[in-house]
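Show me a record, fold above all:
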Amino acid sequence: HPERGSEGRVMLLRAVFCVYLCWVWSARPELGPETQAGTGGAAPTGCGCGAANRAGAGNEGEGDLAGNSEHPADKYSKDANEEAAAQEMDLRSKMVLIQSNWFLMGTDEPAIPQDGEGPQRKVWVDSFNMEQHEVTNKQFQQFVTQTGYITEAERFGDSFVFEEMLNKEVKSTISQMVAAAPWWLPVKGANWKHPEGPGSSILQRLDHPVLHVSWNDAQAYCKWAQRRLPTEAEWEYACRGGLQDRLYPWGNKLLPKGQHYANLWQGEFPSHNTAEDGYITTSPVMSFPANGFGLYDIVGNAWEWTADWWNIHHTPQEARNPRGPKSGTDRVKKGGSYMCHKSYCYRYRCAARSQNTPDSSASNLGFRCAADPELRV
């Protein structure tokens, strides 16, 4: 029967087509969750975004799209996810164990007496851990993505930026300045993600120290990282790197054998930076030699918050693990920054110190964390 014969051929074709579909289905590559969820294409390989999203860490930023040849099924396996989680934890800075000891804190030859640099006194510090380098933009980005934290600069809506870092368009919108330091301008929209205000980005600076973080912001990060801010005594002991009574972490000469050991200002401040050290503003962490304890950028690059309240009156008596006053209005910051020059801000010495209110932020202010020995992670 013509119709029945035609129907048979259709059924045969359907059977062949079904067999073909089954063969294609069995031969397909395993699809990862991102593709199965309907992202419209193969999951990007090597970025770690899927595993990071699973752990709530979000995008790790620049450099994470470098692909590799791993199979999507392998990437989303239990073992691969556990490995990615471990790598995610490793985004926190490595810690250096600094052994307990006496050291000479402060100086009897203060360069800036009004800062309370003296008198020199003998201080004991228990063993502690210190982060190898300043907290970077990438590390702070992970913290914000995981926690949803909003910095104080973002909440206030502005932050202080060094004038030389701003373009003419941004400068034209600013009518205020700091009378005592006219190179500091309050820029609307300036924060850790936008260091020079709207239009600026950290994407090419993920390995630079995070800036525009207040003391309160730094505290929040260190708590999240299961760490804490160092005391001023811990910070200064760490800065000296095992040397006694020296100006800098590496000795008394600023440029031993003509070599730059820190990111500082060269030239005439604030009008001309010759950048002989290779950098106009911040530099990637670990760009300069480490001190005797293996710590990088302990002076220069960015100021670093400490745990202590500000006080300029110190006694010459010995002290053990001093922690500063119990209260105050400002917190101590140490180390100086890329803006420091001997003619203006000779505070890149280990004994030097300065202060800001806990909610202050600026384009040269960052931090690093410390931890007790039992919390070495």
